[in-house]
Amino acid sequence: MGKLVIRYQGKQVGEVNLKLGDTRIGRKPGCDIVLNDAGVSGVHAVIKTVGMKSTLYDLDSTNGTFIENERVRKRELKHGETIVMGEHTLYYRDDPNLEPPTLGKRPAPPAPPAVQDKTVVLTAIAQLLAIEGKNKGKPVPLVKDEVTLENPGKNPARIYRTSDGYLLQAQVGPGEPRLNDKPVPPGGHLLENGDIIEVAGTKFQFLK
């Protein structure tokens, strides 16, 4: 059997040994591999492993699944292939040490799993997702210590990454940025998952 080495923006964030049967990948908590990524569908794809072969099936995902830069619906995975879902890159590796049990033989004691829970949660850096406006559907990863949301003719909104979380600051007044359909508090607001920020006619949802 094989395994997946998972990276987000060039950094390794997980390594998962594939199991016999189905391994579901998506954004929903019920998946076997959870990718907290706005570009990934709720149940994005499934990898079916039979014996030593693993086959990936895209489950009609919104943004598609790409292997070696080609959008695929179904593909038997080969050692070294690169799978892209949203902002995540999954590298498939054959691992001869991960052999399925053979009938009539007592399986060797398994090595300690890389991940203890059934569900592997891979949390990307917090991001904003445009849910209304000209850039609808576009994610904005909050990878910098300060991110500015421009507001032509008015004051911009700024999001600062702090030790306590992500702090939103903006001026109060007509046409100024709003938070959850209200003015941004004068001292700023530590963003919570699902908060809605409106700037210059575009609404962003904060996802963490």
Strand content: over 45%
Structural class: mainly beta
Integer tally of domains: 2
Shape: elongated
Distance between the termini: 33 Å
Q: What is the CATH C level class of the largest domain, in words?
A: Mainly Beta
Number of strands: 22
Number of discrete helical segments = 0
Oligomer: single chain
Helix content: under 10%
Strand order of the largest sheet: 2-1-11-10-7-8
What's the CATH architecture name of the largest domain? Sandwich
Textual characterization of the structure:
The protein has 208 residues and is an all-beta fold. The protein has 2 domains: 2-94, Tumour Suppressor Smad4, CATH 2.60.200; 127-207, Tumour Suppressor Smad4 (Sandwich). It contains no helices and 22 strands. A hairpin with a 2-residue loop joins strand 16 and strand 17 (165-169). Mean pLDDT is 82; it is low at 99-107 and 109-119.
Please give the structural blueprint.
Blueprint: E1 2-8, E2 11-17, E3 21-26, E4 33-36, E5 45-50, E6 53-58, E7 65-67, E8 70-72, E9 74-76, E10 82-85, E11 88-94, E12 120-123, E13 127-132, E14 139-141, E15 146-149, E16 157-162, E17 165-169, E18 178-179, E19 182-183, E20 189-190, E21 196-199, E22 202-207
Parallel strand pairs: 3-4, 4-12
Antiparallel strand pairs: 1-2, 1-11, 3-5, 5-6, 6-9, 7-8, 7-10, 10-11, 13-14, 13-22, 15-16, 16-17, 17-20, 18-19, 18-21, 21-22
Protein name: Signal peptide protein
Region (Disordered): 95-114
Pfam families: FHA
